[in-house]
Amino acid sequence: MSTDTAATDDTSAADVPREDAPPFRYTARLAGEIEARWQDVWQQQGTFHTPNPVGELSIPGRQVRPDKTFVMDMFPYPSGAGLHVGHPLGYIGTDVWGRFLRMTGHNVLHTIGFDSFGLPAEQYAIRTGTHPAVTTAQNIDRYREQLRRLGFGHDDRRSIATTDPAFVRWTQWIFTQLFEAFFDAGANRARPIAELVREFESGSRSVPDGRDWSGMTRVERAAVVDGHRLVYIAEAPVNWCPGLGTVLSNEEVTADGRSAIGNFPVFKRSMRQWMMRITAYADRLIDDLDRLDWPESIKSMQRNWIGRSHGAQVAFPVTDASGRERVIEVYTTRPDTLFGATYMVLAPEHPLVDEIAAAQWATGTDPRWTGGTATPAEAIAAYRSAASRKTELDRQENREKTGVFTGAHAINPVTGQQIPVFIADYVLMGYGTGAIMAVPAHDGRDFEFATAFALPIVRTIQAPADHPDDAVFVGEGPAINSANGEISLNGLDVAAAKSAIATWLQDKGFGRNQQQYKLRDWLFSRQRYWGEPFPIVYDADGVAHSIPDDQLPLTLPEMEDFSPAKLDPDDPNTEPLPPLSKATEWRTVTMDLGDGEQTYSRELNVMPQWAGSCWYELRYIDPTNTDSFCAPENERYWMGKDPDRPGDPGGVDLYVGGVEHAVLHLLYSRFWHKVLFDLGHVSSEEPFRRLFNQGYIQAYAYTDARGVYVPAEEIVEESPDVFTYRGERVSREYGKMGKSLNNVVTPDEMCDTYGADVFRMYEMSMGPLDISRPWQTRDVVGSQRYLQRLWRMIIDEQTGELRVAESDAPTDDETKRLLHRTIDGVRTDYQAMGYNTAIAKLIVLANHVTKSGTTPTREVAEALVLMTAPLAPHIAEELWSRLGRSESLALGPFPEVDPSLLTEDTVEYPIQVKGKVRAKIQVAADAATADVEAAALAEPKIVELLAGSTPKKVVVVPGRMVSIVI
């Protein structure tokens, strides 16, 4: 917008300098030349190539130092739009930190790759008819070009994309490791599935249903083994989007229950899918959070997502339509309220619903319970269809409770009473057992449902006297109305009542103590084309087998039509037809898996986009290794446990990314890594020992009278709070920068107009890295001024010659002390990633040198260049070279502080009289209080003010101020 461009006292912000500008001024044009040249030098010399202990990436002559640091950014997804200025915020932050550590003697591993499978690329390919491999490669090239221009110190030899066949090979290999493993609960770790089979064969482990292993068929044995695998096939509730022909993750579904891509309806339904048994690791995933240096907010989000709780599993008998007795299992954290359970609710998707539903409504059934339909089956079908169109969030937060009666009654095991069984969408199949005992007196949602359906409400906890009798009570108190002929909880507090009822349920066979989790196994199938094929084949009996390692990678077949089958987007009952089902030659294969050559059919689903991002940190370590996904020596060096840190789990030293990945990506990565640790493939127990969440770049966005976002760069500020677009007034709002708000500024624009170093410094100066910050292009000139001042301090703008004092010229005492205070502060700030405060200190020092009017000494000039280098590496390399240094400063040195110069010889005291500062004095830093007081009273301005009178009181605050009371 027009107000975002501003001239400075140094130069125009535009690329073309003013006609009267000195010929060697640091402008965007000169910056661009310098930046391109040094990027070429770094690439040609392999400046940021980091040596490995072993393998192809070891570098002859370059020492593998013990002080190593592995720093990572969260994977970018290479979209066709390229980067906007919000994307590089974290990347610049990690680059500054990594550059500083290299300069202080660390071996730093820093690179970046691309999470390049997924639905967006596939949908774009379907729309344009271009193969996703083509567009993905183009997008990656575009990103790499943009990232290179910003001068990142990445080891480009280590960069990978999840779509690279070499990467796919090891993603599939890790999948087979999980497929060929099971979780041994007794040992609390994963073990090879072959060991489980040997235990069944020897009889040391019993088959779960008690059958004799030796008498079972091959297919029966396979079914038993498959039931233990860490990867298995099961019926699971999924987000089915027939309009896209695929299952979607929760993150791909909008709040109103539609697909984020295409805006198609999404339905909840059960499908046969590949699952990963992440629930087996629930306790370790929670407990090991205490060992990680992560923000507490992220740890809390993971703990809440896993949702470990302690309670009881209670059995409610119910008779099905054929007269057989069934059991509805309910998990509750409040078994002490069991006497108040007056009805039950099943999730609409619960598998028992169809079995227990009555054929006809019983005489006297409340009309409010039936949904206005003729039979329970009709009511259930209609209600399920409606529920499938709602998101889980809608179902949980909707205060208007709906449901239908199944026509069946269960028995409350403590009262012996029959209680009606409903289905209602506020109960989710993915939580607990998918069934609840409803205690409306003490649960808000149950109370709302019971009120709507005229169901009994029985209070079993004594509420305070002032609590209304007709309102829900969710607090604690002594038990009431909780007794039968065998047990009484009345008068007991919550803890005692829980213990007593749990023991009674256990003794009577009605229940047991139970630890429960919200976490559910990870749904791992997608009905897409652009994803990793599963390394799985099925034999003639439908038994799944992993394909041999030497046949990996299994690559996608070349297909002209890779779109899913056209399905009715509004019909939730359609069946998926994966695009790979069209690859008729590819979908069958003849191979020998140990029983001679046979024909097998391939799995036609593909892995989700999460797969590659679950382990990419390990491939960064050893990307050219063809014998393993990562050599053990290299993994131990970069990610191994620190013996000097008790309880250290190992992992990447610093992982930086957005809070939006707080749960799923990080949880899935931790799960895969723990399995690899259990199976002996890695020495570290966690993938990321330290996590840092950067903030977001926010920017103004503008909407016209239609509510449509218009280009922010074309907005004119007519007057304060009055903005127009092409002459029409628009409204202004504030939000995260992005295409949807039409308020994108690209790093290319910033580099063209100011230079990459200015852009880098501006983003780091905007505030603490972990705080979201507003983007204002006009403010970039502050960073430009600093770099111009640094350039002008060392280079004569008229001649281009060096203007630094001779090397033996001494630095004056005041400047020398400020220099070392700056070195000390900047070192501390860089280490803590406090870049905005480091920049402020550099500006103070540069301003001091400029205002002194003297030619800077080499000591000061070199120190300023070196301290600026992590932030603005191109101009720093150029100035370092012009100062006569032949070696790159990328590997140091970084200025060292002289501690003796950090103490002040004198201290300035402001003198207050009647609450106002009237004068200032300089005294020795170690001056006694009496001497400070005497100096203050002798100051001429104070003498004149007192006019011979004696102060009533003089207060000296050591090192800070003097206050005189008259």
Automatic annotation (TrEMBL):
Sequence motif 'KMSKS' region, residues: 736-740
- UniProt-annotated binding residues for ATP: K739
Q: Which Pfam families match?
A: Anticodon_1, tRNA-synt_1_2, tRNA-synt_1g
A biological-process GO annotation: leucyl-tRNA aminoacylation
Q: Which domain of life is it from?
A: Bacteria
Q: Where is the Methionyl/Leucyl tRNA synthetase domain?
A: 74-179
UniProt lists compositionally biased (Low complexity) regions at 1-15
* Family the UniProt entry places it in: Belongs to the class-I aminoacyl-tRNA synthetase family.
**How is this protein named in the record?**
Leucine--tRNA ligase
Per the UniProt record, the source organism is Nakamurella sp. A5-74
Gene symbol here is leuS
